[in-house]
Write a structure and sequence with these properties.
Length: about 100
């Protein structure tokens, strides 16, 4: 007899981009790297790379998964759905 499958936790990720200057994200699980031109983070649904100019992380809470970014946002690019590897130092700081 097979054991019943474990219930899966619902995975949510949303983003709101306003005037290409302000980005609000939910479902953030880790921040890999960031500087004024690129922010690479992981969401519950995979990797997200944000490119632009004068990017700034205005607020992040990995407990709630919310993040605010400002700057001149040029590109949002999704990558792999699965996250492999250990948490970054930035992610560990906000755990």
């Amino acid at each position: 007899m097979k054991p019943a499958p474990l219930p899966q936790t619902p995975q949510h990720h949303n983003l709101i981009l306003e005037d290409r200057q302000s980005l609000n994200l939910s479902g953030v699980t880790d921040v890999d790297c960031f500087d004024e031109r690129i922010i690479r983070l992981y969401t519950q649904l995979g990797e997200l790379t944000i490119k632009g100019r004068k990017l700034h992380v205005d607020g992040v809470s990995l407990e709630s998964g919310d993040m605010r970014i400002s700057g001149d946002i040029w590109s949002l690019q999704y990558g792999d759905r699965d996250r492999n590897g250990p948490l970054s130092a930035f992610g560990k700081l906000f755990r």
